[in-house]
Structures are given as C-alpha cells and as structure tokens.
Design a protein that fits this description.
Elements: H1 5-15, H2 18-29, H3 34-41, H4 45-57, E1 61-66, E2 69-74, H5 79-91
Antiparallel strand pairs: 1-2
Helix pairs in contact: 2-4
Length: about 100
C-alpha cells in the first residue's frame, strides 16, 4: 500500500502516542469497555474515548454493542496503520 507523505506523517503521529499504543496492547489481549480502560490506564474517560475514536478511524480498533455498552478490541485489519502497528508491536517490550 502506498501512502502520501502527509498520510505517512499522520500515521506516525497516531502511533507515536504512548497512551494509544498502550490501549492497542490492552485491546489485543481483551475486549474492554471505556470504563474498564479508564480504570486500567488511569486516563480520563474523555481521553480514552478520544484515543479510541482515532484508532477506530484508522481501522486499528473495532467496537461491538452489548446492551447499552460498547466493547472495544483490536481489529487486526488496519491497512497501512495495521502493517505499521504490527511491525512496531514486535519491537515493544514495555511490560506496563
């Protein structure tokens, strides 16, 4: 997949955020709600929601409705974002 310079830069910005990377790592292992992610990460609910929205737009995160709640998980189908994340993920050794 070919990206423009602007698209590549925006993708790098997306994955350069520690909180977003941590959310992706958590969502690779578990389906979690915003409330659960807030408890685990200590981030404000609004920050978690904003990060999830950006990751979802990039195709890295998906959600499913269970009653009135939404559960989020890593999608594994993110095009260029997914390819870059897969490469980065193999290099991340942070045990947090």
């Amino acid at each position: 997949m070919s990206l423009s310079l602007e698209q590549g830069t925006e993708l790098c910005r997306l994955l350069a955020d520690t909180s977003r990377c941590r959310l992706l790592i958590l969502l690779e292992a578990h389906e979690l709600s915003v409330a659960e992610l807030t408890d685990i990460t200590g981030l404000a609910q609004s920050r978690v929601s904003t990060h999830l929205a950006r990751l979802k737009r990039a195709g890295l995160v998906q959600d499913k409705r269970v009653g009135s709640a939404a559960l989020y998980s890593a999608s594994g189908n993110g095009g260029a974002a997914g390819e870059l994340w897969t490469h980065l993920r193999t290099q991340i050794s942070d045990a947090q």
